Hints:
It contains 3 helices and no strands. The chain is an all-alpha fold and 73 residues long. The longest helix is centred in the last third of the chain and has 37 residues. The radius of gyration is 17 Å and the shape is elongated. The chain has one domain.
Amino acid sequence: MPPLTMLLLTMLLIYLVFMLLKPINFAKIMPYTPRQAALLKVVLATVLGFLLALFFITIAEWIFQLPSSILKH
């Protein structure tokens, strides 16, 4: 998979996870530090989006390598 595609997929999934986390109010969990609650949301979105992108990139690489490994023999 080309690096630009991997970068775009990673950025897209980080944004998607951030939008999914947006309705969750972390300020209720951390009432004395609302700024840290906002930072926690950004960090969680980055980590989860990166892991999700890594999952999809790995699955795509396996799919691309599967025909060559099956038809090798």
